[in-house]
Amino acid sequence: MRVLLTRPIDDSQLVAKMLRDKNITVHVAPLMQIKYLPHPEIEVDRYQAVIFTSAYGVRAYHSNHFDKNKHFYVVGQRTAKIAQNLDLNKITSTNCDVKKLSEKIITELNPKDGPLLYLSGVHVAGNLTEALQRAGFNIDRESAYEAIMETHFANETKKLIKSGSFDYIPFYSPRSAIIFERLIESSALQNTLSSVTALCLSHNVEKELDKTRWKQILVAKKPTQEDLFNLMGLTL
């Protein structure tokens, strides 16, 4: 089994280790690089809770030495684990998506108790902010980092794709699928994916892939990494 990982380098290296421990051949070729953004002074005390939808938001919060004793809402087990490792205290997590997270926040918090702070990337998927605003919450979204897209495949990656060296390529976000498709086009590799299965974290990711290119496109039952790799018959 041969897998191409395209997430930012830190995420890909963690998954690569788990896969290699199972004797799976892995090549890492990040489609995006993470750039942390300088922050204006944020008055964290005025917020009743802080929201993260990625580990990058957690790291940005921690690097600014903000209050660790807020109530934190996060998406995903890995993001929650990183928050715990960085000594953030009251953490509420959902292992699904931003829709489930917004529903949990709406159920557990009262808009009258104060605004919410959402530390996100410049580009976000889902409509977390809108959903919470419709429920009466004041929410401030601050861009803590930017995922900068790669403009080309490295030569080694290009050669491996062209030679049919991969069985699976997992995609975690619509943006990563869009970038991959663009790079396939610009590298003239449109006809090289007929033996490759694309693994999608959600149907929103699936929509961004050209279905004519692939052997097949599979979608995880739930938007979790565990369910994504279950599509390969693996338990991570």
Major β-sheet strand ordering? 3-8-7-4-5-6
Class by SSE composition: alpha/beta
Strand proportion, as a percent range, falls in: 15-25%
What's the overall average pLDDT, rounded? 92
Would you identify the regions where 5 or more consecutive residues have pLDDT less than 50? none
Total strand segments: 11
Q: Work out the radius of gyration.
A: 19 Å
CA(first)-CA(last) distance: 15 Å
Instruction: State the helicity in percent bands.
Output: 25-40%
Order of helices and strands: EHEEEHEHEHEHEHEHEHEH
Overall spatial form = elongated
Characterize the main sheet: 6 strands, mixed
The DSSP helix count reads 9
Tell me briefly what this model is:
By secondary structure, the protein is of the alpha/beta class. It has helices at 9-20, 55-63, 77-85, 98-108, 128-134, 155-162, 174-186, 203-206, 225-230; strands at 2-5, 25-28, 32-36, 49-52, 71-75, 90-94, 116-121, 139-149, 168-171, 197-200, 216-219.
Please give a structural write-up:
This protein is an alpha/beta fold and 236 residues long. Helix content is 33%, strand content 24%. It is built from 9 helices and 11 strands. It has a 6-stranded mixed sheet, sandwiched between helices. It has a 3-stranded parallel sheet with strand order 9-10-11.
Task: Tag the structure with descriptive keywords.
236 residues, elongated, single chain, three-stranded parallel beta sheet
Ordered list of secondary-structure elements with their pairings:
Layout: E1 2-5, H1 9-20, E2 25-28, E3 32-36, E4 49-52, H2 55-63, E5 71-75, H3 77-85, E6 90-94, H4 98-108, E7 116-121, H5 128-134, E8 139-149, H6 155-162, E9 168-171, H7 174-186, E10 197-200, H8 203-206, E11 216-219, H9 225-230
Parallel strand pairs: 1-2, 4-5, 4-7, 5-6, 7-8, 9-10, 10-11
Antiparallel strand pairs: 3-8
